[in-house]
Amino acid sequence: MSGGDPGLYGPASVTWQCHGDPVMWIAGVRALYLQALHPRAVRAVLENSDFRRDAWGRLLRTADFVGTATYGTTDAAERAGARVRRIHRSLSATDPGTGERFPVDDPELLLWVHCAQIDSFLHVLLRSGVPLTPAQADRYVDENRVSARLVGLDPADVPADTAALAAYFEKVRPELAGGPDARAVDAFLRRPPVPAVLVPGRNVLWRPVAALAYGSLPAYAHRLYGRPAPPPRTVTRHLRLTGTLLRSIPAGLRWQLPPGHILKAMQRMGPGSRPSAYTLRTSAAILDRPGRA
């Protein structure tokens, strides 16, 4: 492996090995569903972005940030974080219940968005068959306090293992609701508007992704949204089948999608940095070092 800048994570991390997995796209949609259940978080999105007309763009921008933070150089990751913090500092929104104005960079909101994202990433990776041990799952949560710092959180205030992450969700659940904003996001994600000629493609390609993302949510989220999901065993089976199918597509083709963070990282770091979650099955070397948060 060459001596290039490993960035904020590096090939020795669980995150580096896992974030190149194609089920991350399903996980990203699950994160949107989960995040929308926080009334202030979803209101901040709807008031400050053209979500209904640019949801795909929002998903791609989130993927670009995650890719830059994971596989970019240290400087690129820090610049991406500074850009996010700068944007958030300039925005505010109206509480849908009280009418109070609140800043978008409220640490409680940033923590919710972070935890919903990390929980979704880890949940879908595990449920689709990625072979992480409990220790590696804890390491993943710990490592991603780095991304929490990038958006403006103090890593000391962010869950550092799966038990702390679960405890956070238990604490925040009373604040969640399936209000009109959340239902609007649900309706959009189920049937995003597209030109008539693209409707068949949406039904074939997008609908299964959205259905899997929704089905993988916890039961309380289904209750809040007010619509059922398939039995958990069925969802798990479909996630595993989908994961197997997506992983059968050569990684070199999948990683050609813009902006090509993984290919750039491999050019910088050498072929030994090629990410694969299945590397974790045979090597526990990544657990030898403490987390970098």
What does this structure look like?
Helix content is 61%, strand content 2%. A two-stranded antiparallel ribbon has the order 1-2. It has helices at 14-18, 24-35, 39-48, 51-71, 74-89, 107-127, 134-143, 145-150, 162-172, 180-190, 199-215, 219-225, 232-247, 251-254, 261-269, 279-282; strands at 92-94, 101-103. Residues 284-293 have low confidence and may be disordered. With 293 residues, the chain is mainly α. It is built from 16 helices and 2 strands.
Q: Main traits of this protein?
A:
single chain, mainly alpha, two-stranded antiparallel sheet, disordered C terminus, 61% helix
Mean pLDDT: 90
Record the strand order, biggest sheet.
1-2
The unreliable regions are 284-293
Number of strands: 2
Spell out the helices and strands N to C: HHHHHEEHHHHHHHHHHH
Structure classification: mainly alpha
Quaternary structure of the protein: single chain
Q: Strand share of the residues?
A: under 5%
Separation of the first and last Cα atoms = 24 Å
Rg value: 19 Å
Q: What is the general shape?
A: globular
Number of DSSP helical runs: 16
Largest sheet: 2 strands, antiparallel
**In which range does the helix fraction lie?**
55-70%
Give the helix/strand layout:
Blueprint: H1 14-18, H2 24-35, H3 39-48, H4 51-71, H5 74-89, E1 92-94, E2 101-103, H6 107-127, H7 134-143, H8 145-150, H9 162-172, H10 180-190, H11 199-215, H12 219-225, H13 232-247, H14 251-254, H15 261-269, H16 279-282
Antiparallel strand pairs: 1-2
Summarize the structure.
The protein is mainly alpha-helical and 293 residues long.
